[in-house]
Design brief:
This protein is α/β, with parallel strands linked by helices. The chain is built from 19 helices and 16 strands. The protein binds adenosine-5'-triphosphate and magnesium ion.
Length: about 450
């Protein structure tokens, strides 16, 4: 376990370090909040011993930053003797435990052991949540975070109604999965689930895709064809990427939704159609309305009920379970992500959300050795990104340097002569920089 000791008092820091290293823990030290956050950003840390009273940034602030980045990291707050009120407060803030100064070493060790045990259980539990969810839901959706729990319960309630649902969210957040869930929980669940991607169909074919056509109704219409509306009858029609729907077609869609009737191209007869409509978009439809590229009346017609699926970076609690889920799906053998690898993923921002995580895990298995995925097995851009995403210029440059050293050493099987050559530096400089960045072969 990697433990970060944060205290402005050098003696205290060194005393704790000496003790913990002797117990076999790997320690890092910071003399203030800034240093602590920097180390935290660059190193996989599982536990932090945090002095509550420090000049500059106090313990509460450091704690807030840390828990925001990774709610799974454990924090023991070290408070002044007798300040029980603050102790209660820091626990409220999310510290896992606290100790009073002067720190008695034996209780400290007991607390650390308890935290270690809890982290192990949490890691194991991460694999179990998915089966719990599955027993309630018709499809596998991982989501222990309050945000996802809320979405799942809202989806269940709205599924029972005939309302049109608009699902919003960034790319890869699971909008389609939520749409399928609504269908499966709805009264029309034994009917079809028909999808149409409004962004992928050429404008001139769109009307025929949606409403179908009669034979000979236009050049190329060699046979009569039913459109997606008809195919979705008595089921659910999923209008994906609805923000991409060409303006010219919007009134036609609106009419079909309002009147529940469609006409195939080239036909005189109207067909009554009963479909449940779910739409999804990663665009800001309101803004598109303001820009005049999306009709307001259609917007209100679709947005009877809206569900916002939050980006993965705002529900990192779900990450361990998602990792376990995809690990099971994509690995030919049982594989676990170790604490370092998990911590690294925890700090990543996932602009491509869950789909990106899925791809990362798929790719990781081609690099991983053995049954445990370690930090070094993660794709380079993840290791690279997490350290360069924030901080000042010099912090980022340091992070880039560190990552380049790591990659080069790994690529050359830790043969320093070759790693140094590839980096265009001397071996002596390489060794100096490795010491500076505390880089050792794992
Ligand atoms: N909560 C979840 N649990 C398990 N798998 C998920 C979850 N959310 C998303 N996924 C998986 O992530 C991938 C992306 O999800 P999905 O296609 O639903 O996203 P989307 O929001 O529709 O993306 P886009 O905007 O790019 O169309 C899919 O493989 C899906 O199965
Ligand atoms: Mg989608």
């Amino acid at each position: 376990m990697n433990i970060l000791i944060v205290d402005d008092d050098t003696m205290q820091r060194e005393m704790l370090q000496g003790f913990l290293e002797k117990q076999g823990f790997h320690t890092f030290m910071a003399a203030n909040g800034d240093e602590a956050l920097e180390i935290f950003a660059n190193t996989p840390i599982q536990l932090i011993l945090l002095d509550h009273r420090m000049p500059d940034m106090n313990g509460d602030e450091v704690l807030r930053h840390i828990k925001k980045t990774n709610p799974l990291v454990a924090v023991i707050m070290i408070t002044a003797y007798g300040s029980v009120n603050t102790a209660v407060d820091v626990m409220k803030l999310g510290a896992d435990d606290f100790l009073e100064k002067p720190v008695a070493l034996k209780p400290l060790l007991t607390k650390i052991q308890m935290i270690q045990e809890r982290l192990t259980i949490a890691e194991e539990a991460a694999g179990v949540t998915e089966t719990l969810d599955q027993s309630k839901l018709p499809i596998k959706i991982i989501g222990e975070s309050p945000a996802m729990q809320n979405i799942l319960s809202v989806a269940g309630r709205v599924a029972a109604t005939p309302w049109t649902v608009l699902i919003r969210g960034e790319t890869g957040t699971g909008k389609e999965l939520v749409a399928r869930l609504i269908h499966l929980l709805s009264p029309v669940n034994d009917g079809p689930f028909v999808e149409i991607n409004c962004g992928a169909i050429p404008e001139n074919l769109f009307e025929s895709e949606l409403f179908g056509h009669e034979k000979g109704s236009f050049t190329g219409a060699s046979a009569r064809r039913r459109g997606r509306f008809e195919l979705a009858a008595d089921g659910t029609l999923f209008l994906d990427e609805i923000g991409e729907l060409p303006l010219a077609l919007q009134p036609k869609l609106l009419r079909a939704l309002q009147e529940k009737r469609i006409t195939r191209i080239g036909s005189e007869t109207e067909i009554n159609i009963d479909v449940r409509v779910v739409a999804a978009t990663n665009r800001d439809l309101k803004q598109l309305v303001a820009q005049g590229v999306f009709r307001e009346d259609l917007y209100y017609r679709l947005n009877v009920f809206d569900i916002l699926v939050p980006p993965l970076r705002e529900r990192k609690q779900d990450l361990p379970a998602l990792i376990a889920f995809f690990a099971k799906r994509y690995s030919p053998r049982p594989v676990q992500f170790d604490a370092d690898a998990t911590a690294t993923l925890m700090k990543y921002s996932f602009p491509g959300n869950i789909r990106e995580l899925e791809h990362i895990i798929q790719r990781t298995f081609t690099l991983a050795r053995g049954n445990t995925v370690q930090h070094r097995d993660l794709p380079a851009e993840i290791r690279f990104h997490q350290v360069t995403a924030q901080g000042t210029l010099s912090q980022r440059l340091e992070a880039v340097e560190r990552e380049m050293l790591w990659s080069s050493l790994e690529n050359h099987q830790w043969v320093q002569t070759r790693a140094a050559k590839a980096l265009g530096i001397s071996e002596r400089v390489l060794r100096y920089k490795m010491r500076k960045h505390k880089i050792k072969q794992l």
